[in-house]
Batch of 2 targets.
Target 1
Amino acid sequence: MEGLFLGLATGTACLAYCAPVLIPYLIGEGKGIRQNSLMLVVFLIGRLYGYLLFAVLAWLAGLLIGQGIIYRDLIFGGTYLVLALLLMIYGFSTSERYCPAKISSSLSEKFARLWPSLLPLVLGFFTGLNLCPPFFLAIAGAAKTGTLAGSLWFFLLFFFGTTLYFVPVPLLGIFRKFQQLKMVARLAAGTVGLYYAYIGVIMIFGGVKRL
Amino acid sequence: MSESLLEALDTKTQRRLTSTILLTLPMVLLTAFMYVGGGMPHGWRATVPMILTYVFVNVLFFQMLRTGRTDKYRAAFFITMAITFIISFMTNLIEMRGSLVLSAADMAKGETPFCHMVIPMTIIPAALTRTIIFPGRILGGFADVATMFTLWIGATLALGRGFCSWGCFYGGLDDGFSRLRKKPLIKKISERWTYLPYAVLVAIVLLSALTLSPTYCAWLCPYKAVTEFAAITSSTVVVQTILFYALFIGLVIVLPILTKKRTQCGLFCPFGAFQSFSNKINPFEIRINRDVCKDCQVCAQKCPTFSLDRNSIENGRTRLSCMKCGRCVDTCPKGAIAYHVKGTPLTFNSQRARLLFIYPAFLFLVVFGGGMIRDGIYRILLLISTGSMIR
Ligand code: SF4
Ligand code: SF4
């Protein structure tokens, strides 16, 4: 369930940061709720592929670190701690950051010219590769599971958690209070960072005891 | 001044006094019924607190009506309630359990008093598991879950987020500390921090659903420092205890003194954030008359809960977080702010909306806080006469 929780807790941030890049593609064409929802589903499928790709990579990373070794808790605990601190900086700092999906948007435009109907899928895939602190935490969490199935399951739940926030987008006039939502989302991600920092510290203590 | 003018003034004053007395009368009778309905108390130690509380409550209400000022008299009650709540809660707990320390055995027995702060955390787990994730009694006993839920629903319908200025037995603490200095030392607080309570709410609701435990109570509640605390049995409890004290000193004492704002309620409390949404369904609100307002921003400076800013003043409304304390209404130099009942015409010179609000609000304060004040005074008398607050 940790994947789902992480997704739910940080999904607001995903929405707040990535939606301004994505929504114009989704609703800018003004095609009505049914068409928009269809585009959203295609977009989310693309996003799921991106996540599953990372689930496999996370599993491979977990294999490299090894299951039985004594330093495992220390390595994962340390990773959690560093990522949690990043999440807190990301949440509590005032600097503006942009969704990595924006970087990939020029690439997406090329796709759009070649296969316009596939654009939502491509956009979805690239946001699925969104390298922000919550996403790194998800990688660490998935790698810790130790099996390919566990890693895939973790990312699937993470996907569902974050996706929940995207579902109402074509239906609601969510942008009226967008600035506020963005602020709450970032601060919530920072607060969740505190929890992960605590988990990291507990794991490090456990690792030290086992030495 | 001519004699006839003086006479007219006199008649006006007399009429005002009569109407104030008439309006106070229902409260005088209601509180009398509340306090002696179950029979007169025995012994001076029980009678004196009853009389003092009765007089205190009714004098405050009378003054509220006579002067037309709300916040000053509300705060006097609210702060007294918070202080006497701590005295009463701690002594009752010691009588009930033998100490303030909450042991694993007490938790297993379900002896933890339920508090409204837990409500937002219980909703998702209750829907998922059909259990209340709190080691307290559902019905019967000291501060049981059912009673607290009922009181909260009543307050929410009647007051909305006004609960945080008229009902919460913790709020009086940062309210009190925020009044200690004449002028604030820290004047500017970034607007983004006013969104932190909503962020803490999101985080604790999700964490409580994940861990099936009331995360805020276990880790972040500053008021744990002045109520009950877990027995120190592990390093985790040490960390938790340090957090409780740090948050209490920072958010409830130091920052309110420095900023003259209710920083715990306005910048951190997730229950408050949750309660803010009830302002949408509550019939009362605070409105600003844009025709009279001079945009001097005095109300925004005085609002202790960060509920007014340039934007909201321009729109003639408060932000969602308004706790209906009435300070802005009392301090606006132009008299441009007033209580208002949604759906009725905006008549800023009428006292009717204010009356309609303060009656249920004050009554709630009396029901919720009257007993605490009475017990608090009783404990103080007990201490003076016997050397101990415990019976
Ligand atoms: S204090 Fe009164 S006049 Fe000044 S900005 Fe507020 S509402 Fe307007
Ligand atoms: S806006 Fe006015 S009534 Fe509302 S909390 Fe601020 S001072 Fe109190």
Target 2
Amino acid sequence: MTQLPQSTERKLGLVIDLDTCVGCHACVISCKGWNTENYGAPLSDQNAYGADPSGTFLNRVHTYEVQAEGAAAQTVHFPKSCLHCDDAPCVTVCPTGASYKRQEDGIVLVNEDACIGCGLCAWACPYGARELDKAEGVMKKCTLCVDRIYNENLPEEDREPACVRTCPAGARHFGDFADPDSNVSRLTAKRGGMDLMPELGTKPTNKYLPPRPKDQLEQTDMLAPLLDIVAEDTNGFLGWLDQQLSRLPGDNKQRGK
Amino acid sequence: MHPAPSVIIFTTLSGLGFGLLLWLGMASEAPTGWEAFAFFAVAFALSVGGLAASTFHLGHPERAWRAFSQWKTSWLSREGICAVAALIVMGLYAAALIFFGRHYAILGWLGAWLSLGTIFTTSMIYGQLASVPRWNTSLTSVLYLTLGITGGALLFGKVGIALPLLLLAGAVQIIWWLTGDKAFAARGSDLGTATGLGEGGKVRSMAHPHSSPNYLMREFIYVVGRKHSQKLRAISFILMAVLPAVLLLLPFSHLFAIVAVLSHVAGVAVSRWLFFAEAEHVVGLYYGMR
Ligand code: SF4
Ligand code: SF4
Ligand code: SF4
């Protein structure tokens, strides 16, 4: 049913730490690996070994450069998958009821047997989190690994999304945002977790932790005044030493002359 | 947005078809017999043809019947229901006129409202999308409704009313284009808000996640050069409004009337191509392409 639940009992989602992500794309590969052989239709590739390879992915990593006025540019790797929005526009536009948001945990899913592949939900998602599979003609999206997180056939430590399980940098965290004491709620509060495109009113569940500000040059210069020894008295031993040192190539005082 | 032929044909033809059905339903002196047959044949060919075209791009057209179920939230579902209801009611109305020469005005009016509803719900499929700021305005519905009503009047041969409607449609179209050009910036989304990194400085896309275009880029990132689009807008405007109006002002001839209709349809089709091709989806921001 494409009516959104008034509220959900739990709000499962991800916290993605943009400070820690190293852009290795391991989460992309483990996501595709798990999801192509489990929930629903496989994630097809077209022309995978040709000049123009293309395929369905539920998680993709962009790379950006952020530069503040007068500061050095900073590279930020940016993984992006479905944010399991509270006010998910992709769900309400669906004409068949194939798209839905679960009342029990807030996960947004597609029932592929009912999907006609009209693509409208992908049009409605501002984040590019849905992709129509070319081979199967149905809509694919992140399921938050719904077939792992509740799967009692898996060892306890594997009952989390494949991307979280695989991330070598510990940049991805999975948990319940409805619980203020959960790991994800605490991380979000502590590090100023943010929403993507909040102006569109989708109320995403997933949060992104901003990169920590880089050290500025002034800060590393704290010891500089102590190091810059200038001899006031040019006659004594220190004066002589100062003159000798100034003769060395590259000295500031010489260049200043 | 990718200007797919299926959606251009769908919106252009079904808009005209339901526009004609609207006028046929409202007519106090409705045609009967063979004349009625000709009118309804054209109207049904256009509306049904347009709807059929819209199923071409579906991944699973055999499940299309499911699309009638979510009328509580989905404009696409509402559009499907309105269209089928309009076709059934107008089918009965047409049968009475063609075979029995009977004019059931109440059926006609009901069908007219449903036809109008179909054009409106079609416009809302696009107008509802906050992710495409250019479409996300009630002006989109005004545009679709005016063009549908105008095209219908032209097809029905209502010269007196078609003339002012053509001018109105031309004006609405120009207003829609001009406001649309400002819509993306007005929405306030940029790479800074899309990534949340905007407060830290200027954000620039350095590397895409993939080496060649994917579904998202093919579907949502279509760029038309400004010069090119201005040229097409001029062509569309002349074909849609100016030429038909001039032809209607000339002494009446059947040839002129037919050319006026064809010119209008061609103009609307160009306008619809631009409607899709010029529409900027916010996902383009993530690729540094907006
Ligand atoms: S990120 Fe996109 S697909 Fe996921 S819930 Fe939000 S709008 Fe829907
Ligand atoms: S593509 Fe499938 S899930 Fe998406 S709106 Fe259409 S029917 Fe619903
Ligand atoms: S696996 Fe972790 S570090 Fe690597 S790209 Fe994904 S989130 Fe970033």
